[in-house]
Amino acid sequence: MHDELTQVDIDKMKEELQHRIQVLRPKLIEEVKVARSFGDLSENFEYKAAKREKNRNDSRIRYLENMIKTAKVIDGTSQGAGIGLFDKVTIYLEEDDEEETIQLVTTLRQDALKGLISKESPVGKALMGHQVGDRVLIEAGADCRYYVQVRAVEKTGEDPDIPISTF
User: Fold this and answer.
1) Rounded (10°) CA dihedral 128, 133, 139, 145
2) Is residue 76 a contact partner of residue 64, using CB atoms and an 8 Å limit?
3) CA distance linking residue 83 with residue 150, whole number of Å
4) Given CB 3.0 to 4.6 Å as the disulfide criterion, which of 21, 35, 39, 147 pairs with 47?
């Protein structure tokens, strides 16, 4: 499977990857060496903590390398009148009787707590291509279906300040 990412996503990952390899990795290796010098490794919390951080960094490096290698680069501009990538969309949740504004982003930049919804999520997939006034069925699972109404669409374009997700 290839993740659809913009060139900005790829550039952000390359920047993070370079920082993790050239700056963070040598620092973490040194921290492991220092902690190892404290003695008995079976009861050495500093060593275990340093080793865990080094392994987390190595894991993130592998993740970023794989994402860059397998990504399908897409255009980040929204075309036409329908909802597209990076558009801010105001939707009316019929069941809750409330409005919510979300922005459709690539999977790498999703953050539901900030209203950044992946175009690959059930909500994102359902909204793509629709226009103001449309009533859209969101299917989030076999037992979870609900309708939203598209109230407004703001064509914002790609915002390079939206950070990529970390773990």
Assistant:
1) 170
2) no
3) 9
4) 35
First to last CA, the chain: 20
Residue 118 near residue 107, CB atoms below 8 Å: yes
- List per-residue pLDDT tens for the chain, 167 residues long: 568 899 999 999 999 999 999 999 999 999 999 988 877 777 778 888 999 999 999 999 999 999 999 999 998 776 777 899 999 999 999 989 999 999 999 999 999 999 999 999 999 999 999 999 999 999 988 888 999 999 999 998 888 889 998 86
Residue with tokens 């949740």: 93
